[in-house]
Give the backbone structure.
Amino acid sequence: MKARVYLTRHLPGEAQSRLKARVQLTVWPAATPPPREELVRGLAGAEGLLCLLTDTVDEALLDACPSVRVVSVCAAGYNNVDVAAATRHGVLVTHTPGVLTETTADLAFGLILAAARRLVEADRFTRSGKWEAWDPGLLLGHDVHGSCLGLIGLGRIGRAVARRARGFSMELLYHGPRRHPEAEEELGVCYVSLPELLVRSDFVSLHAPLTAATRGMIGRAELGLMRPTAFLINTSRGELVDEQALYEALAEGRIAGAGLDVYAREPVDPGHPLLTLANVVALPHIGSATLATRARMAELAVDNLLEALEGRRPPHPVNPEVLTPGG
Ligand code: DGY
């Protein structure tokens, strides 16, 4: 008897066909997340859920769907899932770290370059018909090479950004919940307190997961420590930043600019104040969005789900204690 699985969006690549061959699969057909009632209906009798970061898996959903044993999130970040509630329900949660590291680091570095060198503004200007002559004062930006990069979080993606920054001869600072002596040695990154990082960096790039400890970690006080010539780059989660405080700092010229791929609420409202500012480069959460990486994420999410449903340890469990009850 094949296990029943609910998939909340069509997956790129071949992964979905592989899943379909092994389970009894129901797929939500739309390009937006299934409403809660639909999710509950689709999960009736299902043992597995393969979902995206846009699908909230909380205690109420787990209560309503007691047959679910495995929740496979097709993302590295799994803040959409109440992991403590899942553990209480004996539900295994898995995610897809590692396969998107380099792709997301590419985008973070792209945002550094785009924000500092005003690439999006310059593109709009070129198309506007306003370009009259080469001008020594036209669209002047900030140098990236030789500047100071402050990484908040030195996990896989933070390290991959550090490797790119070395090629730009950047000074590298980092802050996080613990020191990483091996990375300090390998990458030449220097551990500093958060205030020191904010004061010294020309670019502050966020690479921390969203947790109770990191939510709102960049607020008015933190932005107030940054240089008027500095940029904030966020490819992690929007809720790390107080967006109103960021808007005010940018609008009042207290920091130079921002490169954002993520927002507190997604999709971000097109009327959001941050989107009215020329010194903001705003992307629609595309950090991992390449053909190859999205296919790899889907493969890994399917591997996690199938391994767990078939009683084996999946490659990336979030709450492995569920696999060994009692410890
Ligand atoms: C993740 O995986 O957490 C990203 O935000 C989407 O790729």
User: Anything to note?
Assistant: The mean pLDDT is 97. Residues 53, 75-77, 100, 287-288 surround (2R)-2,3-dihydroxypropanoic acid (CB under 6 Å). The domain at 4-99+291-322 is CATH 3.40.50.720 (Rossmann fold). The radius of gyration is 22 Å.
